[in-house]
C-alpha cells in the first residue's frame, strides 16, 4: 500500500514547497485539486517528476458548490463541466482517479431526487472518463446520502461500469458506522482511500492516532481481506503550531497503521 497526502494538508506557499516536503516526509504521492489550465497542469506534473512523486488522484472542485443533485439543470451542467475539468487535470498529470461527492441532500433536494439526478449526471460523465482510463471515485462524506454500505454498493452497481468506484474515507464513516464493516461490504469497489482520525466518544475529527478511537488494526485487516493495495491518503488540516513536523508525524503514523502495529 502506498502513502499519499492531500495537497491541502501540506503547508507552504507553492506547489514546489509542498511537494518537496511530501517527499522528505516519506510520501509516495500527492492528491491535488482541479487545475483550470494546461500550463498549471504541465507545471504540476513536472514538479512531481522532479521530486519523484506521483500525482495519483484529483479532488473535484465543484461538487459542493454545484452539486450534481441540484434541482437547477444549469447548476448540474456547471457541475458536469467541473468534472470534465477534473478529468482533463487527471489526464495531464498522470492520475487515474477523480474524487467526486455524488450528491447533496438538503431541504430542497430529497433523498430520492439526489439519487436519481446524480446517477443520471454521472452516466453522462462515464464516456469521457472511460476514454481516458480515469476512474470516477465517489466519496462517502457528511452529505446525508448513501448512509449504509448496502445502499452504497447498490448505487455503484447500478452504473454497470467499472469506471465508477468508491473512494472510501475511513474517518468520515465513524459517525454512523464501523469502517472495517464498510470496507468488507464495498470490497473490490474501493479504488482509493482517505484517512483521518475520529474520536467517536466526542464526535470530532482528530489526527490519525493521537486521541483517535478508530481500530486501525481492524481496518487494515479488512483492507487485507479485500486485497486493497492502492493509495492510502491522509486528509488532515495543517498544524498551525508545527506545520512541517506534523507532516512527518502523519507519515510515521501511516507507516504504523499500514504495518498493523497501532
Describe the structure in your own words.
The protein is an alpha/beta fold. The protein has a single domain (2-259), classed as TIM Barrel, CATH 3.20.20.150. Helices cover 44% and strands 18% of the residues. It has an eight-stranded parallel beta barrel, surrounded by six helices. The protein has a two-stranded antiparallel sheet with strand order 8-9. β1 (2-6), α1 and β2 (29-33) form a beta-alpha-beta unit. α3 (73-93) packs parallel to α4 (111-131). The longest helix is centred in the first third of the chain and has 21 residues, at 73-93. It is globular and about 45 Å long. The chain starts with a strand and ends with a helix. The model has no long low-confidence stretch (mean pLDDT 98).
Q: Mean pLDDT, rounded to whole units?
A: 98
* Strand percentage: 15-25%
**Distance between the first and last residues' Cα:** 16 Å
Question: Helices and strands, in N-to-C order?
Answer: EHEHEHEHEHEHHEEEHEH
CATH architecture classification: Alpha-Beta Barrel
Biggest β-sheet description = 8 strands, parallel, barrel
Q: Strand order, biggest sheet?
A: 1-2-3-4-5-6-7-10
Secondary-structure class: alpha/beta
Q: How many strand elements?
A: 10
Broad CATH class: Alpha Beta
Helix content: 40-55%
CA-based gyration radius = 18 Å
CATH topology: TIM Barrel
Name the poorly predicted regions: none
Shape: globular
Tally of individual domains? 1
Fourth-tier CATH superfamily name: Divalent-metal-dependent TIM barrel enzymes
Amino acid at each position: 500500500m502506498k502513502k499519499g497526502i492531500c495537497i491541502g494538508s501540506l503547508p507552504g506557499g507553492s506547489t514546489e514547497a509542498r511537494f518537496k516536503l511530501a517527499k522528505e516526509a516519506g510520501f509516495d504521492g500527492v492528491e491535488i485539486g482541479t487545475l483550470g489550465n494546461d500550463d498549471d497542469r504541465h507545471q504540476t506534473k513536472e514538479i512531481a517528476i522532479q521530486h519523484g512523486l506521483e500525482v495519483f488522484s484529483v479532488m473535484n472542485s465543484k461538487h459542493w458548490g454545484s452539486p450534481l443533485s441540484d434541482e437547477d439543470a444549469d447548476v448540474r451542467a456547471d457541475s458536469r463541466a467541473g468534472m470534465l475539468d477534473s478529468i482533463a487535470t487527471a489526464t495531464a498529470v498522470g492520475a487515474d482517479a477523480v474524487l467526486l461527492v455524488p450528491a447533496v441532500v438538503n431541504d430542497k433536494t430529497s433523498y430520492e431526487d439526489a439519487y436519481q439526478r446524480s446517477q443520471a449526471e454521472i452516466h453522462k460523465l462515464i464516456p469521457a472518463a472511460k476514454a481516458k482510463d480515469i476512474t470516477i471515485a465517489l466519496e462517502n462524506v457528511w452529505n446525508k446520502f448513501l448512509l449504509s454500505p448496502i445502499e452504497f454498493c447498490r448505487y455503484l452497481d447500478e452504473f454497470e461500469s467499472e469506471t465508477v468506484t468508491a473512494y472510501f474515507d475511513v474517518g468520515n464513516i465513524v459517525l454512523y458506522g464501523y469502517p472495517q464493516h464498510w470496507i468488507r461490504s464495498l470490497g473490490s469497489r474501493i479504488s482509493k482511500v482517505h484517512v483521518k482520525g475520529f474520536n467517536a466518544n466526542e464526535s470530532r475529527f482528530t489526527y490519525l492516532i493521537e486521541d483517535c478511537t478508530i481500530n486501525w488494526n481492524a481496518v487494515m485487516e479488512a483492507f487485507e481481506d479485500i486485497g486493497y493495495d492502492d493509495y492510502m491518503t491522509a486528509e488532515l488540516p495543517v498544524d498551525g503550531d508545527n506545520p512541517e513536523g506534523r507532516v512527518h508525524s502523519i507519515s510515521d503514523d501511516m507507516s504504523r497503521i499500514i504495518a498493523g502495529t497501532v
